[in-house]
Amino acid sequence: MNEQLDPELSRLFSSYAPEFESSxxxxxxxxxxDRAERRACWRIAIGSTVIAIVAGxxxxxxxxxxxxxxxxTDHTSLLLESQLALWLTPLNLTLLTALVGLCLHxxxxxxxxx
Amino acid sequence: VQNPSRRPxxxxxxxxxxxxxxVDGDRVxxxxxxxxxxxxxxRFQRQLCGxxxxxxxxxxxxxxxxxxxxxxxxxIEAFNGWMKRLMISVWFDELRRRRIxxxxxxxxxxxxxxxxxxxxxxxxxxxxxxxxxxxxxxICVLLxxxxxxxxxxxxELLQIPLGTVKSHxxxxxxxxxxxxxxxxxxxxxxxx
Lengths: 114, 192
Fold this sequence. Notes:
The structure holds two protein chains of two kinds.
Chain A: H1 7-15, H2 22-63, H3 65-72, H4 75-87, H5 90-103, H6 105-112
Chain B: H1 7-11, H2 15-23, H3 27-49, H4 52-69, H5 79-97, H6 114-117, H7 122-131, H8 135-145, H9 151-158, H10 162-179, H11 181-191
Helix pairs in contact in B: 2-3, 3-4, 3-7, 4-5, 8-10, 9-10
């Protein structure tokens, strides 16, 4: 506490006690927190989908002529490519990344401090 | 409420533990913190803006920002100062949004509620007197008188020189005394 403060004003400030209705404020606060959580969830989902689309596009390119050229240089790569091709279709990649994003949105938010 | 059964138990839990739980992302603990702190935050915002509806909106923003960034809190002991900084930054953002400069001479509260215009009270008169101070002076006066912060704490919170804080508090106190002369007189009469 400051010793330089005006004692009369200090008394006035300590008498300042407007009435606050708590339950309504707390209910509004709860709804605002719900909305904020939903928005954060959507942001993560949209972010994941964008990443998934980019990954999907990359997969399309990788499985195209360029990917085949790279894969044909070595037999192992060829085998790997045929196995992966079953699972890593652009659509699967998109769905998988979006799903991971949705499941981990709390952790991702914590990491990014959203 | 995500888990209503935990609320009664948290009501009696010491604040540092509730803060710790909230920092770890426990929504129920954070709601308990809101319940404990809401009166103080709303009172501070109301003294700053002079309007209970706007003050509640600003208080809500303070708590929402707190919820978003609570995970970055360095230590439990830093919580009070951290909350105060949030309260101040929300108020500054509101001023920026309304294009009100920190040194702009005050005149009336940002909005005056019709319902309270007719009823004189210490609360309303103090809010109106505070609204006549420049925002920068007002916040220094409030932090000193209402929040009980020392001048050096205010200087640190607002990132301004200590001398400036002292001059703002002195100037603001003099103007408030002049504006609230009736209350000061009544106070003096009561004391004698």
